[in-house]
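Message: I would value a second opinion on how I read folds in token form. Give me a protein, with the fold worked out from its sequence. Write it directly below this note and I will take it from there.
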Amino acid sequence: MIVSGSTKIVGIVGYPVAHSVSPQMHNAAFEHLGLDWEYIPFEIHPEDLKKGIDGLRAEGVLGFNVTIPHKEAIIPLLDEVTKLPRLIGAVNTVKNENGKLVGYNTDGAGFVDSLKFDAGVDPKEKNVVLLGAGGAAKAVAVMLAETGAASISITDIDEKKADDLSAHVGSHFNSKICSLKTGSADLAAAISNADIVVNATPIGMHPKENECPIAESSGLRAESIVFDLIYNPPETKLMKLAKEKGAKAVNGLGMLVRQGAISLSIWTDHDAPVDVMLKAAKEALGIK
């Protein structure tokens, strides 16, 4: 696409951002929709974040995604933040509304959409085990509770993080939420009773691609859905274990695409072409 004076600009803010597949994903969608929009990566050093955001506002950039390491630091620089990103403590999408910067978080909603449409399961009234209590896990836990999951059992090698996330989400929602010690009998019991097991840890991704976040003897059952937020490699050791047990396993590519699709809709008020964005993301990642 040729950028002209009338082209509407959106993008992604992070450090670094060269690895992001979001530009390919969004620009393919804009072309498909016939929109004169362009998605550009903006690499902003953490020390320059305020200056960079002020610059994007002044230039009239209509919106941008926010990635590591800025998702939390950007919050005080915005004019308004909607309810869910306040609960999550992170913003991944910003819309410029006539000079007012409004923060959203589409990660959790993208996860739930992927669960429903890619894994074929609605988390409402389901028992969920969440592996990990970091930034990605916060978005997942909040949206699972918002959607009405019956129970969420959270585990992390850092037990305090799991305790804190459990207490935080439990104070705002009615789902039964608890933290469980990694490797414990209680965790194994929760996994054996889980409808959905979610991996929100980096275990399974380089350099830990030969590791699995749960033991083979953990009690994972064929009726469970395993959702691994990792999408590179496309099939993790956890996903292979799930398939060996007869369970359905889904990676995080659908979540990546669907959170981007929600961002696009926030900016443009158009329905995002999810299939077009998925195809572009696969091409960018070299996935067949």
Notes: Residues 109-251 form a domain with the Rossmann fold fold (CATH 3.40.50.720). The CA atoms of residues 7 and 52 lie 20 Å apart.
